[in-house]
Design goal:
The complex is a heterodimer of chains A (about 625) and B (about 475). Chain A has a domain at about 600-630. Chain A has helices at about 1-5, 10-25, 30-60, 90-110, 120-140, 140-160, 165-195, 205-215, 220-235, 245-250, 255-265, 270-275, 275-280, 285-305, 310-330, 335-360, 375-380, 380-395, 400-415, 415-440, 455-480, 480-485, 500-520, 525-530, 535-540, 545-595, 600-625, and strands at about 65-75, 80-85. Chain A contains 27 helices and two strands. In chain A, strand 1 and strand 2 (about 80-85) form a beta hairpin. Chain A is mainly α and about 625 residues long. Chain B is built from 21 helices and two strands. In chain B, helix 6 (about 105-120) packs parallel to helix 11 and helix 7 packs antiparallel against helix 11. The longest helix of chain B is centred in the middle third of the chain and has 33 residues, at about 150-180. The chains are: A mainly alpha (about 625), B mainly alpha (about 475). At the A-B interface, strand 1, helix 26 and helix 27 of A face helix 8, helix 9, helix 10, helix 12 and helix 17 of B.
């Protein structure tokens, strides 16, 4: 079974792709059937993915000795483009996380999307997304990864704009697509330059050839390439300054936010760097940049999340902040910590989003947490699950977030004390705003006209399962040697760093207490605090005006230039093209008139051509004759 | 000892041909007569399967005095021909039975044309090649006349015959001159014969090439093509556009590369020139066409130009590109003509006005037509895109950058008239038109099957061209290292 799964791992992305085709072309109109097809496909992929995990464990496949299968897709000139699959522990972590979360989200959607007329379309898009994401995970080369990288971007666009009749959804979809495109373009340039300078984009080959290349050519060009490659993850994984699309992406259905914009697609950038870490590792300056940018993004987004009111937006900024954490971990050289946090974060953030979806649906699309309150009584299961999620992200032991965050902070401390400090402050803020969300929405007094009811079974059980995973995945990873298994170079894990663990737990507990004091006991008035720290409050509440800044840049940078170019296009280029087109058409008309239908004319034309050819023959024969000096 | 194995395909096809004729004479029952196209198709497919089975990469088999050879190149083309004729018979079986004047003879002549094509792919001397060529061409003269609409079909047939006779005369004269200069009829024996440099030799080579230009409807030897394509019965047009062209290309390549390589610096510039002329004139003349059949005639002139560009890149990569391109062009052609064969008898024509509303009354057919035409235009992810990449990269590698450039520009222009067909099928209808387009168009499941095959094949070859390209590469290596 395990070997079969390993050999046919290509089925894992293929099955959802088939589901997409079947639903898209056939059963779109039939909601229940579409959902069943999609869930059946992802279930089989899920089983296969976990079997691949078994195969990797039993067949002794490590990061040094991955399992690679590939086939030549096409050859263009000298460049051979191959498609295939690269399976090592890194891949398997992603495979299992993606299929697990996707399966739970698709089951959850059975309840969440039940009353949506576009449910068939929803399952088609989600299946396509899952297929693309799994293809990305299995990629053997930057080239293959880029193909699927673009595909997940497309799916993200389609799903953010799922409620296309809403203006805000359309705008958000466009914003997401264009912003990530900026990053994708950098990535594409990087890949093309890699192909030109190193001669391959295949991960395994790159790993072999890179030391040789550095010996010969130095790291100058490689530094540029690494920076360009990193621009892709900046866009896709919502790093500053291209993070602006992610909060708006919450316009999509909530299961989509959980699957794509929290658990899987947004971590593609982290995965890309982890996958190509052998490349980034050669260039310390890029790693340093990644670490600081990640740290900045983490604290920046966390400081915004503190003042936001819509539940999903808080979670979105929290996601950006946590992605910054993962980037920081990569930057300080710990692939293990980064991937570990990626895994635990996928579970508890998906849990939080799905919980938020349940709450928002129960509140009839009311997302502002200050219009909720006391939901504990109406939605006990959801409340318990959300509590687990909040404690997990806050890093309270023994939940998942504690272990993974501890590893990141320990790695940061080893590298640079200031990074550790930023990480710790971020952890404090994270605990605070998550506790704020929980206390405001679920505790306190029940509002009179609150319509909330406990959710249905389809939505409840995935929450419970994810809550379970949020509890155990950290312990499991910590005690079963995640660090021995997913790593770069020698394993560096040396157990819990008690200074780090102690400080982070104290900070988290303090933050939760503070939130409790402000929002439940009302020892201090939140409004009073906001008024006293007005400047900071406004900066944070308005997201540091980054969006406004982009609007100005877009207006003066793009629109003005665009107007000028538009004028040139309209009056000069179009004019020339239209004239050319008219000319071509006229020539076509004239030539057609030669076809008068008279066979005599045809034969004359034929012999005319023949005379032309024979004339050429005569000239050639004459040339040959004169060259041979009349010898012929 | 005579190696009869080399003529297996031809023997089998002759048997199919005789069976078709006998069946046509003996069976009078209408119900059984209807099965004739299917039976012929099965017979042809069986011959193709045997050919693959026996000669899969078996090296070179040759017949007495190397008049006739069977190498990977020939096998590749024979399979293509069989495949094309079988599918054409399939999608047009109803058409043949209802719209042609003598269905039995019609099918028999199709098989004999196929036999001619197969001989052309294998011929290794001028006499054999000429026999194959004429077997095919004469069959087509008759086939073009076998429509119920006697007027137009007859006109088409006579025009084809008259211009064809002129071309045959020139070609035969050319062959005799080449024989006079080189002293041999066998291609491989002429390979390094310096006597071809004599004026007589150059003249003979030119005349032989003119003969091929006629078959490929190269401008200005193309004048017959639009009229014949438009007037002939639909399956005949389909076979003329791809089968006849592919056979001529196959024989052309063998003659140029094995018989006249010594004169390469004579015919390469000429071919490059005519290839460019073809691409430009074919595409520009197609721009204004409103009849899809006639448009496809002009477009086939342009397609011949693309393929000739591949021949100009006279190396293994170029040959591989040409052979791959022929394959995808055949598939696209079958798709387009299958749709027309379903539409023409019901709606009485193939102009843009006739196919208006096809998207509503037969969405599958409209989709197949669109994809097939996009493949001809070379839009990704259809096969045409991959084919043009192979073609033009081979051409650029050989230093003919300008030729590739002409190809690019003309491909862009061609998108216009291909998409005009799509526009005609998908545009909003006036109320009057909407009434006729409201009923779904009825067509047989066979047409549906063939159309689907063409659709899937076009997309598959575009998304994953490597296996077929490798097959073509292996076939190309038969006489090109």
């Amino acid at each position: 079974m395990f070997d079969f799964a390993l050999q046919s791992a290509w089925l894992i992305p293929l099955l959802p792709a088939i589901a997409f085709a079947v639903i898209g072309l056939g059963t779109r109109q039939n909601k229940q059937l579409s959902a069943k097809i999609a869930i059946a496909a992802i279930s089989v992929s899920f089983v296969l993915a976990w079997s691949v995990l078994g195969a990797v464990l039993t067949n002794n496949i490590t990061v040094e000795a991955p399992f690679i299968a590939k086939t030549v897709w096409t050859t263009i000139g000298k460049i051979e483009l191959a498609m295939g699959m690269l399976i090592d522990p890194l891949t398997v972590v992603m495979l299992t996380v993606v299929t697990t979360v996707a399966l739970l989200v698709e089951i959850y959607s059975l309840g969440y999307m039940a009353h949506d007329p576009g449910m068939g379309r929803f399952y088609a898009y989600v299946s396509l997304f899952v297929a693309s994401m799994l293809g990305l995970v299995l990629a053997i080369s930057f080239f293959q990864m880029y193909v699927f990288w673009e595909l997940v971007g497309l799916c993200s666009y389609l799903l953010i704009g799922f409620y296309y009749y809403k203006v805000s959804a359309r705008e958000a979809a466009k914003k997401a697509f264009i912003t990530t495109r900026i990053g994708d373009f950098g990535l594409l340039l990087g890949i093309i330059m890699l192909q030109i300078y190193v001669g391959t984009t295949d991960f395994a080959e790159l790993q072999l050839q890179l030391p040789h290349y550095i010996d010969v050519s130095g790291t100058g060009m490689l530094t540029l390439i690494a920076f360009l490659l990193f621009i892709g993850p900046i866009g896709k994984s919502g790093q500053f300054p291209l993070h602006v699309w992610l909060p708006n992406a919450m316009e999509g259905p909530t299961p989509v936010s959980a699957l794509i914009h929290a658990a899987t697609m947004v971590v593609a950038g982290v995965y890309l760097i982890a996958r190509a870490f052998f490349l980034f590792n050669q260039i310390p300056i890029v790693l340093e940049f990644i670490a600081w940018l990640g740290a900045f993004t983490a604290i920046f987004a966390a400081s915004i999340a503190i003042t936001q009111r819509p539940m999903k937006r808080i979670l979105a900024y929290s996601t950006i902040s946590q992605l910054g954490y993962m980037m920081m971990a990569l930057g300080v050289g710990s692939v293990t910590a980064s991937m570990f946090h990626l895994m635990t974060h996928a579970f508890f953030k998906a849990l939080l989003f799905l919980g938020a979806g349940a709450v928002i649906e129960a509140m009839h699309e009311e997302a502002d947490i200050f219009k909720m309150g006391g939901l504990k009584e109406r939605m006990p299961v959801t409340c318990k699950a959300m509590t687990v999620g909040v404690l997990a992200i806050a890093g309270i032991p023994p939940l998942a977030g504690f272990f993974s965050k501890d590893e990141i902070l320990a790695a940061a401390l080893e590298h640079n004390f200031f990074l550790f400090l930023i990480g710790s402050i971020t952890a404090f803020m994270t605990s605070f705003y998550m506790a704020r969300l929980l206390f405001v929405a679920f505790y306190g007094e029940l509002k009179d006209d609150c319509p909330a009811e406990e959710t249905n079974d389809f939505m409840r059980y995935p929450l419970v399962i994810l809550a379970g995973l949020s509890v155990v995945s950290g312990i499991w990873g910590h005690f079963f040697g995640f660090g021995e298994w997913v790593r770069f170079g020698a394993p560096v894990h040396e157990g819990i760093n008690f200074f780090v663990a102690f400080s982070s737990v104290v900070l988290a507990a303090a933050a939760i207490w503070l939130a409790y004091a402000i929002y439940v006991e009302k020892r201090w008035s939140a409004h009073g605090l906001a008024a006293r720290w007005g400047i900071f409050y406004n900066l944070s509440y308005n997201k540091y005006y980054v969006d406004e800044f982009y609007v100005i840049v877009r207006y003066y940078g793009c629109f003005v230039v665009a107007r000028i170019l538009y004028w040139i296009d309209l009056n000069i280029i179009d004019g020339a093209i239209n004239m050319l087109a008219k000319l071509t058409g006229a020539v076509g008309g004239t030539l057609n008139r030669a076809h008068c239908g008279s066979v005599q004319a045809y034969v004359i034309c034929f012999y005319g051509g023949a005379i032309l050819v024979m004339g050429y023959a005569l000239i050639y024969a004459y040339k040959v004759l004169s060259m041979a000096g009349g010898a012929f | 000892m005579v190696n009869y194995l080399a003529v297996t395909t031809e023997v089998l096809l002759t048997a199919v041909l005789l069976s078709v004729i006998v069946y046509d004479i003996v069976v009078k029952d209408k119900r059984y007569r209807k099965m004739l196209p299917a039976l012929a198709g099965v017979g042809i497919s069986l011959s193709a399967i045997v050919t693959i089975g026996v000669f899969n990469d078996a090296g070179t088999q040759s017949f007495p005095g190397s008049l006739f050879v069977l190498d990977n190149f020939a096998v590749y083309f024979k399979n293509l021909f069989c495949f094309a004729v079988t599918l054409t018979l399939c999608f047009s079986s109803d058409y043949i039975m209802e719209q042609t004047s003598h269905p039995g003879e019609f099918i028999g002549l199709c098989v004999s044309a196929l036999l001619g094509m197969c001989i052309m792919a294998s011929a290794n001397d001028f006499i054999t090649a000429f026999i194959g060529l004429e077997l095919m061409t004469v069959s087509f003269y008759v086939l073009a006349a076998l429509a119920k609409d006697k007027g137009r079909a007859g006109e088409a047939s006579v025009k084809y015959l008259l211009v064809g006779a002129a071309s045959t005369a020139i070609m035969l004269y050319g062959i005799s001159l080449v024989y006079g200069a080189g002293g041999s009829m066998i291609f491989s024996e002429m390979k390094n014969n310096v006597h071809l440099f004599y004026g007589v030799g150059v003249a003979g080579v030119s005349m032989v090439i003119i003969g091929f230009f006629f078959k490929l409807s190269v401008v200005p030897f193309h004048m017959w093509a639009p009229d014949v394509y438009q007037g002939a019965p639909l399956p005949v047009t389909c076979l003329l556009a791809m089968g006849s062209k592919a056979a001529a290309i196959a024989m052309f390549m063998r003659v140029l590369y094995t018989a006249f390589p010594i004169l390469a610096n004579y015919w390469l510039p000429m071919l490059a020139f005519f290839s460019a002329v073809c691409m430009v004139a074919g595409n520009i003349m197609a721009l204004r066409q409103t009849d899809v059949k006639r448009m496809l005639a002009y477009s086939s002139i342009a397609q011949a130009g693309y393929m000739m560009a591949g021949i100009v890149a006279a190396d293994a990569a170029g040959m591989k590109a040409v052979m791959f391109y022929i394959q995808l062009y055949m598939i696209a052609n079958i798709g387009a003509f299958a749709v027309l064969a379903a539409v023409e008898p019901k709606w009485g024509g193939t102009t843009h006005a006739h196919i208006a509303g096809l998207a509503q009354s037969a969405p599958l057919l409209a989709a197949v037509m669109t994809v097939s035409l996009l493949s001809m235009a070379g839009i990704p992810p259809t096969a045409g895109f991959a084919g043009k990449i192979y073609l033009f990269s081979a051409v650029v590698d050989k230093g003919y950058l300008w030729l590739a450039f002409v190809g690019f520009v003309m491909s862009m222009i061609s998108v216009y008239y291909y998409l005009m067909v799509t526009k005609a099928m998908y545009r909003d209808l006036t109320d009057f038109e909407a009434e006729t387009a409201a009923q779904p168009l009825e067509y047989s499941p066979v047409v549906k099957l063939v159309a689907l095959c063409a659709l899937v094949g076009t997309i598959l070859l575009g998304v994953w061209p490597e296996p077929i390209a490798q097959l073509a590469g292996r076939a190309a290596s038969a006489f090109m290292m």
